[in-house]
Design a protein that fits this description.
Blueprint (H helix, E strand, L loop, with lengths): L2 H9 L4 E4 L7 E5 L2 E6 L6 E5 L2 H10 L3 E3 L8 E5 L7 H18 L2 H7 L1
């Protein structure tokens, strides 16, 4: 998966927005103003994704390409390497879905309803 494909999949989620709050390279994807993914079009291609804490630990033990979130809360975020990685594209999409759903489920019900 390259940056263009990754970006297309992230933006395919309903009501997703993105911005550059940190610098001109790091793109932050949001649902309801809450971050669920961060990435940049640099090499190696990586993405930070929110994750259930126990699942995050399991993933880190299964894949060399998944580690504790870089510059993020290590308990709740993973960094997934996509370039030359043991993490296949389908798993990346599943982890994006998990992150999106996790963040969406934590939004206030009123915000959830307005986004549906």
């Amino acid at each position: 998966m390259n940056f263009r494909e990754l970006d297309r999949y992230l933006r395919s989620k309903p009501n997703v927005t993105y911005d550059y709050p940190f610098d001109e390279k790091v793109r932050v994807y949001r649902i309801g103003e809450k971050m669920f993914a961060l990435t940049a079009d640099v090499s190696p291609l990586e993405i930070n994704l929110k994750c259930d804490p126990l699942y995050a630990l399991e993933l880190r033990s299964l894949y060399k390409g998944i580690r504790a979130g870089y510059h993020m809360n290590k308990k709740h975020w993973n960094t997934v390497t996509l370039s030359d990685s043991d993490v296949d594209d389908e798993t990346v999409r599943e982890l994006i879905d998990h992150s999106f759903e996790l963040v969406f489920s934590k939004l206030p019900k009123k915000v959830q309803r307005s986004l549906q």
